[in-house]
Write a structure and sequence with these properties.
Elements: E1 2-8, H1 16-26, E2 31-37, H2 43-51, E3 59-62, E4 76-77, H3 79-84, E5 89-93, E6 96-100, H4 103-114, E7 124-128, H5 132-144, E8 149-153, H6 156-166, E9 170-174, H7 178-181, E10 185-190, E11 214-217, H8 226-233, E12 238-239, H9 242-248, H10 250-257, H11 267-277
Parallel strand pairs: 1-2, 1-3, 4-6, 7-8, 7-10, 8-9, 10-11, 11-12
Antiparallel strand pairs: 3-5, 5-6
Bound molecules: 2'-monophosphoadenosine-5'-diphosphate.
Residues 129-134, 153-155, 158, 191-194, 200 line the site of 2'-monophosphoadenosine-5'-diphosphate (ATR).
Length: 279
């Protein structure tokens, strides 16, 4: 029996147990995946217990607010997670905590698997929002071949910090700069929390966006955000954010449970997750 978990504070909203539970059932693996609330003050103690095998876990996912703090308790961190500055997946191996970041893989794979990207990816991309998720998003876009990446945020200093930390072809600016770059933009990403259920919508004018540009949102509640709805109405290819959640879970699942076959993101899995997202 192999066990894994997701930690956060709070954590009751997490969809990860449902997701990993689906794969455990479908691949007939004897294992468990549960959500464990861990207060920020208890993170060090929890990490030590995990390392020493006291929790009986092969590893865990780490979510808000622990993705940065957990890094100081890892014994080894992948170069990519170091660059992104956040760890969301931990594998316990030989008494060591190995940290990595799979949000980047999740975002990138979701775009690739959507089949909506052009054959030769190139040109400018706009990323709205410079919060925790945007570092993984910018890194993935660079790897896919986009550049320059205009990273626009309400708080410009935050965008500048991300651009400085990541280096490369990332140009930081305020959200209002959007109008300067939109007509030349091959891909538009919302990585702000705007458009999420209970939040204000993201109100931006898409009229100058080329019709061939891909529009994607990391928000997945609702699945079709106002931004995606508007983009689809005018004929742009769209990619919703649910896939990022599903794909980011694959590397952890494979490391902890060593499945007989690769866990896949099927239509059945998407529907299973959507059932839990119904209002
Ligand atoms: P995450 O880790 O999911 O990226 P986060 O770190 O809280 O979440 O970041 C939220 C993002 O949404 C930030 O880019 C934030 O902008 P600020 O850095 O200026 O706070 C953006 N955001 C949230 N509410 C916003 C609003 N009302 N208008 C514009 N941007 C907003």
């Amino acid at each position: 029996m192999k066990n894994a978990a997701v930690i956060g504070w709070p954590i009751s909203h997490s969809l990860s147990p449902r997701l990993h539970g689906f794969w455990l059932d479908n691949l007939e693996i004897e294992g468990s995946y549960k959500a464990i609330p861990v207060e920020p003050e208890k993170l060090e103690e929890f990490s030590n217990d995990l390392r020493q095998g006291k929790l009986g876990l092969e590893g865990m996912n780490v979510t808000v607010p622990h993705k940065q703090q957990i890094m100081q308790y890892c014994d080894d961190i992948s170069p990519l997670a170091k660059r992104i500055g956040a760890v969301n997946t931990i594998v316990v191996k030989d008494g060591k905590l190995l940290g990595s970041n799979t949000d980047h893989y999740g975002f990138k794979t979701n775009l690739i698997e959507s089949g909506k990207l052009p054959k030769d990816v190139s040109g400018a991309a706009i990323v709205l929002g410079a919060g925790g998720a945007s570092r993984a998003v910018c890194t993935a876009l660079e790897e896919l071949g986009y550049g320059p990446i205009y990273l626009l945020n309400r708080t410009v200093e935050r965008a500048e910090e991300v651009a400085n930390d990541l280096g490369g072809n990332i140009i930081a600016g305020p959200l209002t700069d959007y109008d300067k770059y939109i007509s030349d933009c091959q891909l538009l990403v919302n990585s702000t929390s705007l458009g999420m259920k209970g939040q204000n919508p993201l109100s931006i004018d898409l009229s100058k966006l080329p019709k061939s540009s891909v529009v994607t949102d990391i928000v997945y509640t609702p699945l079709k955000t106002d931004l995606l709805f508007q983009a689809e109405e005018r004929g742009n290819p769209i990619v919703d954010g649910l896939g990022m959640l599903l794909f980011q879970a694959i590397p952890g699942f494979e490391a902890w449970f060593i499945p007989p076959q690769k866990p896949i993101v099927s239509e059945k899995l998407r529907n299973h997750m959507l059932e839990a997202l119904q209002p």
